[in-house]
Amino acid sequence: IQESEIIYIAVGTPEGPDGSPNMEYVDSVVSSIAKNLISYKVIVTKSTVPVGTNRGIEKQLNEMCPEKEFDVVSNPEFLREGSSVQDFFHPDRTVIGCSSERARKEMFEVYRALNVISVPFVWCSLETAELIKYASNAFLATKITFINQMANLAEQVDADIHKIAQAMGMDGRISSKFLHPGPGYGGSCFPKDTKAVVDTGDKFGVDMSLIREVIGANEIQKERIVHRLEKVMGTLSGKRVTVLGLAFKQRTDDIRESPSITIVKELLSRGAAVKAHDPKAAENFRKLFPSVEYFESAEKACINSDAILIATEWNEYRNIDPEQLKLQMKGSVIFDARNLLDPDMFKVRGFTYLGTGR
Prior knowledge:
Blueprint: E1 6-9, H1 24-35, E2 41-45, H2 53-64, E3 70-74, H3 84-89, E4 94-97, H4 101-110, H5 112-116, E5 121-124, H6 126-157, H7 161-169, H8 190-203, H9 209-233, E6 240-244, H10 259-269, E7 273-277, H11 282-288, E8 293-294, H12 298-302, E9 307-310, H13 322-328, E10 333-336, H14 343-347, E11 352-355
Parallel strand pairs: 1-2, 2-3, 4-5, 6-7, 6-9, 7-8, 9-10, 10-11
């Protein structure tokens, strides 16, 4: 801290017991900075923090070291888990909230390389930058929940959600991104940040009922997977169900708020014997569910199963061979919650195929 000109705060802000972000790690870093503030510093908050946090950091530092020079900047990150390095060097935009011309010049120098490749810069106030992060994640979570609910309706009226999403995505006002139905969103960002938006709204007396509904609908979507499987199979008690995919998304071992947690919990509560595979997340999942039987390959996990449920969109699951699967399985139910497979290839071989919105 003493030797650096610019300090980034990039610690976690996990969800607290009441749904609001836990700020103890940010507070700890700010205290460390205050003790070592021997010359002018630009203090950049990269962590996802509630609106008003950066003003609070300014106030805290002014109280702890009133004679010292510093500026506080809000510079939220928009990295996708599993693609963070690529996203860091090729962002859609760089958001920088600050109120000092000196800090603005320093931050421009930090990101000069991005400016050279014409990355848009959004210069704004601290509060605006803080809210941009939450607004972005809350909107994407809303978009996922919307297409999931449309998929549920498509199932009932015999429509194809892929054609619906394709046509919607052709509209430039909507775009095709995040119009992929599935078992619900998870991870370390969307669940935490949507709850934080609702919590912020409550604190300021603003109705955030839309985001509150998104949170509830997402939980229902996770549970709905098992309800549909049970309806097709009659009962899950004593059945062997293979869950393919435990991480909340492909290319990561992160199981935080993963739909698979709810799915496996529901399966076990109904008396099913659960077998599982995930290329990266199995060991993390084992800590939560030691009674589940884990396998080193998807093929082995499917042997003698009554049903298979694809919960994460790993590319290797797209290449499942229906002929081989027919020989391996005891039953014939395939629940493709991510719509990775060709339904006709499995139906023609006698499988009962379930998809999302198909």
